[in-house]
Amino acid sequence: MPRLSRKEDKAKDSNASTDDNQASMSTQAGVLTWEERNLSSPTVFSESRGHYKMCLDVEVRNVTLPQYISPLPLGLSSADRDYLRMKGALNIPKAELRDALLECFALFVHPLLPVIDLGDVYSRIESNGRTGTVSLLLLQMVMFAATAYVDIRILNKHGYNSASQARLEFFNRAKLLYSLDCEPDRLAVLQTVILMTLRSDQPDLITHTRHHISVAMTRAQLINQDPAMKISQRLWKRILWTCYMRDCILAISFQTPMIIRYEEFDIPPLELQDFDAASWLRAVHWISRHTGNPSGNLCNAQTLAKLCIALVECCQRISYGLNCQYGTHPGEDGFEEELVTQSLGDIAGSKRVIGRFTQIYAEINVEDPITGPGAKQLDSVSLHEYCLQEFRSEQIATLLNTVSQSLMGIESKDIIALGFLHYCKAGTGFQAVISDTKHGGQYLRIRQGTQTISKFMAKELKEGSLWLSTPVTHIEQCQDTGVCIVRSANEAVFMAKKVILSVATPFYKTIQFSPPLPTEKQRLALENILGYYSKMIFVFQKPWWRTAGLSGEIKAQDNGPILFSMDTSIPEDDQWSISCFIVGGRGLKWSKLSREERYSSACSQLRSGFEKVELESGKLEVPEPINTLEYEWTKQEFFLGGPCPASPPGLLSSVDGAALCKSFENVHFVGTETSLEWKGYMEGAIRSGDRGAAEVVAELQERF
Predict the structure, then answer these.
(1) Distance separating alpha carbons of residues 406 and 419, to the nearest angstrom
(2) What is the CATH number of the domain that holds 379?
(3) Same domain assignment for residues 625 and 651
(4) Which Pfam families match (predicted)?
(5) How many structural domains compose the chain?
(6) What is the dihedral of CA 139, 145, 150, 155, to 10 degrees?
(7) CA 672 vs CA 24, 432, 472, 502: distances in Å
(8) Which domain holds residue 603?
(9) At residue 648, what are phi and psi to the nearest 5 degrees?
(10) Which residues contact 365 (CB under 8 A, 6 or more apart)?
(11) pLDDT 10s digits, 324-374
């Protein structure tokens, strides 16, 4: 995962106590990302006597929230508000129970889960909102966390027969608020998700609890990337290390691997100065005033901080053992050798393979690959032939065929060695393109699907400027006027000074160019190939593989069409799925089967792959999926196959190295394959688009 520390100037660090106050449970004014579906207006304040005061209570039908509670989002529908009221999610307990819960949280929960600024939060409650408001979502979760420690007599007095009953009710309140996106403050949501990991007292909650760690780290990543979010370094370190501690403790409890990889967690160690003793003392003094119990002192605060630091250090040591036991070990140069069937880590001489590839692609000129030393030789042989010649190992050749299929949907015998190595060079290295670690090409996913990015970008365009389902058939460049005329299959006609073409080279032959494309571009269009790519998604009622402590991955098996699979579940939506990728030659054969045969062969392979795993609890039984989705990119009009075209032997050395990216008069080419970095990926598409836009702007400025 990328480093999650936040850069702050010395002035901010020297005044971290003030920053901690600003980064508590109150609503932030930070810019919200598209992934937050319901936006709300900032809290309305009026200025009076040097401080801010809430103007009015927030009324929700018959429930009036206290003034110290942040308003619900304005975008929340009346039906959702009624549902929240009916389910009790808007209820705040009477002062006696509330104060008892806050006391228990400060004394028994916060010391080892220091994710909020206690003093600031409690002072906001005491001032009844005059010094700021508190997130309803986070307050409900704080009270849930404290129910395990509060005096049962107080719970009985307020209608609860047991701590378990109170615990379940407060958790369900918070969960409902979370599910309906009632909190726009991303920091408060992150703090809430971390506290959700305390709900792990029942076996059927194991999967959900572990996933909260993953969600927390993903949300932390999003916050870290937003410069508008102002969070003190001290609070940020406490939050991240709390995630690490909870992940380790849950892994031990459930006998599963950690979600956070110890070798990637590069957050500076916790120190005493990261704990705000003054804030904790303000909280316990507030408790003393409201409950009559003795308050703490500075010695208590320092002792609790040392205890938390010691627990972190203990978790660090334990995590190394967990990673050794459950599956991944870092190799040289940060390459992760995974302990899976047919992985590179299982093959003798794997370091020699990586070393040789690293040496070769270091010499490749990414702008003109054919100009590097030995490039013409690499352009004359397929990747399969090269592996046999260089390493004299059928096993290594087979492995690289698996990698080639996974990345591009192309058999290693159908792609030249130079093209494959250039692909790796553009992806910043062989390790990076196949890795799902923080610098890898397979890192992170988008909950709503990558198409969401395009949809939100489209909303920013001028109405009528985007035409969908309008495939281009003709591009004519008028030599006398310099105008381009673009015609589509549905007879729409467009005129422009410039045309930017973002499709892959094999698509060029579906468009009639006038005048015709240069010979070299025509050759690229005719001879470049796209691999076969499809996926089948199996949706299940429950995440049975997670409950068993498995990753949901199978790799490089020969007993069926699936080359690899991955867990693509979205727990927030209660959607549990495994996506199976069927690519390359085996996928092409599979695609010719009937729908029933395709489903049967893929499902059978998935079942056999998991049921042969030996577990301490016995044989794993794979249930029938409740739904199956199939996407065959090769048959989709604007895909036609894998993510990036490949060239046959001899093509690159027989054309100008700049031919791929070079514009043709007023037509500019920006397919992801033209990118010098991360070609074949969305990153490459963005970079090539930036390059094409810069070309167009420069030429138009020069001309006009």
Answers:
(1) 15
(2) 1.10.405.10
(3) no
(4) Amino_oxidase, Fungal_trans
(5) 4
(6) 70
(7) 42, 18, 19, 7
(8) 532-635
(9) -75, 165
(10) 371, 372, 375, 657
(11) 665 433 333 333 333 232 334 444 456 667 777 777 777 788 788 888 778
What kind and span of H or E run contains 483? none
Please tell me the distance from the alpha carbon of residue 210 to that of residue 200, in angstroms, as a whole number: 9
Residue 148 has pLDDT above 50, yes or no: yes
Q: Are residues 510 and 568 in the same domain?
A: no
End position of a domain, from candidates 325, 346, 367 = 325
Name the β-bridge partners of 51: 48
- Would you state the pLDDT for residue 42? 28
**What are the helix and strand counts (H, E) for the chain?**
25, 18
Instruction: Say yes or no: 617 and 501 in one domain.
Output: no
pLDDT band at 696 (very low <50, low <70, confident <90, very high): very high
Candidates 470, 412, 456; CA nearest to 649 is 412
For 186-196, b/e burial (b = at least 16 CB within 10 A) is bbbbbbbbbbb
Residues 236 and 340 in one domain: no
Q: What is the pLDDT of residue 484?
A: 95
Q: Are residues 262 and 346 in the same domain?
A: no
Same domain, 271 and 400: no
Question: What's the mean pLDDT in 96-112?
Answer: 90
367 is in an annotated binding site: no
Which among 434, 452, 484 is the end of a domain? Answer: 434
Nearest to 620 by CA among 635, 609, 629, 605: 609
What the block records as the tokens of 315 is 């978790």
The secondary structure of residue 76, as a DSSP letter, is S
pLDDT range class, residue 113, cuts 50, 70, 90: very high
**Residue 560, in any domain of the structure:** yes
Q: What is the largest CA-CA distance in the chain?
A: 91
289, two tokens: 């005033």
Q: What is the per-residue pLDDT for 205?
A: 56
Backbone angles phi, psi at 63, to 5 degrees: -110, 125
What CATH number corresponds to the domain at position 618? 3.90.660.10
**Cα–Cα dist 91/317, whole Å:** 43
Residue 393 is classified by DSSP as -
User: Which tokens belong to 407?
Assistant: 């990345």
What pTM was computed for the model?
0.55
Is 670 flagged in the annotation as binding? no
Q: Is residue 301 part of a domain?
A: yes
Q: Specify the 3-state DSSP secondary structure of 365.
A: coil
Which pairing describes strands 493-496 and 328-330: parallel, antiparallel, or unpaired?
A: unpaired
pLDDT tens-place string over residues 163-199: 999 999 999 999 999 888 899 898 999 999 999 988 8
Closest CA to 621 of 539, 545, 565: 545
Confirm whether 13 is domain-assigned. Answer: no
How much is the CA Rg of the chain, to the nearest whole Å? 29
Write the CATH number for 507: 3.50.50.60
Q: Report the C-alpha gap between 108 and 151 in whole angstroms.
A: 13
Mean pLDDT is lowest, of 47-51, 404-408, 539-543, for 47-51
Determine whether the annotation assigns residue 673 to a binding site.
Answer: yes
| Residues 622 and 651 placed together within one structural domain of the fold | no
CA distance 391 to 404: 17
Shared domain for 554 and 656, answered yes or no, is: no
Of 308-322, 432-446, 549-563, least confident by mean pLDDT is 432-446
* CA dist., res. 243 & res. 190, Å (int): 10
Q: Cα 449 to chain center, whole Å?
A: 11
Q: How far apart are CA 314 and CA 294, in angstroms?
A: 31
Q: Which residue type, as a one-letter code, is found at position 457?
A: M
The secondary structure element, H or E, covering residue 70 is: none
